[in-house]
């Protein structure tokens, strides 16, 4: 028995449907279509002539769920990135941004104003030449926010002036400054290291920078045993370092000539050759380490320019490395020749006739916890402050004597948050660059400074520039 | 292409990789666009991660090295070292001889091997895929999947 009512939705046909169609003035709808809704008509209009009478389907207002029909995604036609391309993108360093506003009235950093106490709390631009040198020595990190600004500028903080002064004083007296920059996470340790390197470049010292300590110890680059020695060299990295030294220090190195006879070298090095040529003489990994040793010996001769040797990620080189010796034992990082060179210099075993600055920059991002290093730094800090030296834990067995040797008598620079005037200068620079959309007044500066745990720079960036920084 | 023990390897191949999965069918020839996370040393039958790590340490090759970056001198040393070891067919023959001996004695273990069934008393109603895959008389041979 057929019912006039709709079976599925139990809706009653309205009175209107029961009235004969001829009495209605509006054009008749098909009998199967419901009149309480206009969606049928809408649908019919939308579908056009193709299935305008195909209304046997039940029609409901609103969305209807269609199951069982999966949409096929169109195949991705783009080429996948070539090998190494993604990493290159991740590690790229962008030092300028044309969308950012140019900040007028900022002066450039010079060798004089970086040691001037009156420039504390100022933003200074990096000169073009120094920029190229810093880039060559890989002083910029991909995590730093250079890419947000028109041109690279840095905040000169009290620590910067202090450090630059220590560096220039020690080197002026032809002494060796051995210093470790430490401090909490994101306080600007690497940035301070960069400013120190810039100081070195501006004072025409020879600057050697190892940008990541962990690149040397995580067993990701070639190594080979040095003949008749317990040490291991890292030839490919040494070649890379040579290239960086050559590029960054070319104009100084080319003023000095080779003065010693290097008979034992596998390649001919004559007297009268410039040091720049010596740095560029080999791209053969096999000869890299002997040539580097010769180069280092030449640099240590009296009458050469002062040396600045810096390494970022100090804690990574204070542990046992991931390399294995031919007898399948793990190699201590200090048995890797390049790192031995650095730790000897940092520990005061190497004597520099012309003055030197050896900088170790700690990192707190992914650093391993090394009790020996922590204790050694603690002791060095106490000695520097003239306090009683904290003793080692007598019940802890695994202290590493070599770490204590490497950090013997170093100076400590503990980096903390910036002061409020410095924070204000920085925020004004951000605002002038068009990145910070905020009135820079006492209240806002205080707010960001407090949010950042008393002016920790990385946290201030997070608090203020969160929405514009690149997602690294 | 680098040749170790008469096997051609793509230059981009890692000498040894930390992961353990390996498909033996791809060993003999690898086209140039092969994924690079394959292993060269571990692709030899009878040479696993432990031995590979030791051989590499002995020749001071770092764990992420690719074959293209290993100097020819070291490759020669590797080949010389591998030629003294019981790997590939020698290693296969040992395993196959053991199975054959069991079968010839008429033991249950030998029979089960020959039938491709579990050898050590496991149930066979379900879950015998590993046994089906591995247990043959010609274990590790041409038609075997390892």
UniProtKB/TrEMBL annotation, chain A:
GO biological process: mitochondrial translation
Database matches in Pfam families: DAP3
Localization of this protein: Mitochondrion
Region feature (Disordered): 67-87
Basic and acidic residues bias spans: 75-87
One CC-aspect GO term: mitochondrial small ribosomal subunit
InterPro entries noted in UniProt: Ribosomal_mS29 (IPR019368), Ribosomal_mS29_fun (IPR017082)
Entry's Gene Ontology molecular function annotations: structural constituent of ribosome
Keywords: Mitochondrion, Ribonucleoprotein, Ribosomal protein, Transit peptide
Main location per the UniProt record: mitochondrion
Family stated for the protein in its record: Belongs to the mitochondrion-specific ribosomal protein mS29 family.
PANTHER family in alphabetical order: MITOCHONDRIAL 28S RIBOSOMAL PROTEIN S29, SMALL RIBOSOMAL SUBUNIT PROTEIN MS29
Name of the protein in its database record: Small ribosomal subunit protein mS29
From TrEMBL, chain B:
The protein's name in its UniProt record: Ribosomal protein S13
Gene3D superfamilies with a match to the protein in the record: 1.10.8.50, 30s ribosomal protein s13, domain 2
PROSITE patterns recorded: RIBOSOMAL_S13_1 (PS00646), RIBOSOMAL_S13_2 (PS50159)
Family: Belongs to the universal ribosomal protein uS13 family.
Any one biological process term the GO annotation gives: translation
Keywords per UniProt: Ribonucleoprotein, Ribosomal protein
UniProt signal peptide: none
Gene Ontology molecular function: RNA binding; structural constituent of ribosome
Highest taxon above the source species: Eukaryota
A cellular component term, taken from the record's GO annotations: small ribosomal subunit
Species whose genome carries this gene: Daldinia eschscholtzii
Pfam families from the UniProt entry: Ribosomal_S13
